[in-house]
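Late entry, evening session. Most of the bench is empty. Finally got around to the prediction I had been postponing all week. Sequence below, unchanged from the version circulated by S.P.
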Amino acid sequence: MDCYTANWNPLGDSAFYRKYELYSMDWDLKEELRDCLVAAAPYGGPIALLRNPWRKEKAASVRPVLEIYSASGLPLASLLWKSGPVVSLGWSAEEELLCVQEDGGVLVYGLHGDFRRHFSMGNEVLQNRVLDARIFHTEFGSGVAILTGAHRFTLSANVSDLKLRRMPEVPGLQGAPTCWTALCQDRVAHILLAVGPDLYLLDQSACSAVTPFGLAPGVSSFLQMAVSFTYRHLALFTDTGYIWMGTASLKEKLCEFNCNIRAPPKQMVWCSRPRSKERAVVVAWERRLMVVGDAPESIQFVLDEDSYLVPELDGVRIFSRSTHEFLHEVPVASEEIFKIASMAPGALLLEAQKEYEKESQKADEYLREIQELGQLTQAVQQCIEAAGHEHRPDMQKSLLRAASFGKCFLDRFPPDSFVRMCQDLRVLNAIRDYHIGIPLTYSQYKQLTIQVLLDRLVLRRLYPLAIQICEYLRLPEVQGVSRILAHWACYKVQQKDVSDEDVARAINQKLGDTPGVSYSDIAARAYGCGRTELAIKLLEYEPRSGEQVPLLLKMKRSKLALSKAIESGDTDLVFTVLLHLKNELNRGDFFMTLRNQPMALSLYRQFCKHQELETLKDLYNQDDNHQELGSFHIRASYAAEEV
């Protein structure tokens, strides 16, 4: 702990940045990252790699392999790529992998390599081919932007509700732009592109030339651009070695930095923390990483291997063949507690707790100093907040012990924040485990919410961990355990190597009468997988006939549906099945079915008396019921006389 700040790097006088290891990567990569298309999902998401032989002069004779790994490097899926050349990979907000092909087709895969769907970006893209593509995220969902061979842009702001927009043409554009990106302004997606020294903003109706406010003169080309995680800020790398940083509208300049390197960087991403006034950009070249901001000096790191940058809400993930690291601005609470010679109340409380463990009287001196200043409540809050931003469990425990120690000397300190932080950290430490591989920070976790985290655990088929988290946090069953068990059951019915009987029994033993779980939904999934008999077995456990009958009709098990409807005693349900049977069967078979179900026959007769008299007569003839047939003719004759 004495060297705790050894990896802190100052950027100017007001901020520190630190880089620490998340995982030691044990993945067995057969190719260098530079030879692959790479896509990593935000919020500690998975990594996709596709070796790209199409960019080489001599295409490889073997087909490339699409590989998906967790953030810790554990393999999740591997499949031989049998489709066309891929231009770009990207992850949607639902952690679906979007593979943009050269012909404008987009193939969507799940986390485990299962094919989900396919859509096209339009005929124009098909004719002119795809030069480049970007996957971006908006408040409406995940979008795709395409640059075609005709140097035109097409985009869709939400791939779940595909609506293609052909962007306006850039006047005089003869070649591909030097760099471009997708922006989201006023809830609308735009394209910002650079052509030599000029910048153009494409919206739904027009192409506008724009100029960054306060840009240094002498720029003849923009080589790279990066938009921040929240789409509020933009960075531009120029051929003069200057990096301009400002708002995404280009109307306000934050700062400008001369990195004295004119070579175009491999990647440039933003590195900022929510609610922080500091703004920094991380720039990566082949073997150099630079953090620049509103300071005369930069922070530089040497890269030993090919590395890839993943922008996050509160920092940047950096992974290579051997390591996965996280670079971020040191939070204020951590800085105040741990910086050298700090006299902040949190720092004094931490020292007091350490001295108390040593049974030293200095603990009393530190504590009295905090109390005399009236800052004990602030000290406890600082320690709790700093614990949330620590990655190492030993540091979390040390800070929480200090907070607990300080609480003992406060009369009315609400325990909610302390208890909630302990719970949150236990959840975070569980999912950060190497075998789980979701390295969320506290800020990301709060932004993502517990429900989305549970969905992502379910997506990874980590059902036991998801259930343990629900039980630990005491979430309502319908939102927690029941929902996860239903997802587990839907996954179970897809295991075709297990018999229908065994699957149905296992599901019933696990679910029982768990509230909020619908056996009919699970049966519908089984039917969708082609396991009709399993679906029927599962419906036996569904207590609500109103849920059983519609699915049985859909599966063309109408006679069984009729039996279930009669057992329910719901006449409306019986009539629904009878009308379905009438349309499905020929007249003779329909009447024979009714003869085997006296209750259904009685109800249908009542229906026919009011709606279909001729059908009623045919029923009496079919049953050789001469007495009722005679009564029918007598009533009919009276009705005729009245007319």
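Two things to note before I forget:
Residues 7-20+211-330 form a domain with the Lipocalin fold (CATH 2.40.128).
The longest helix spans residues 416-432.
Will write this up properly tomorrow.
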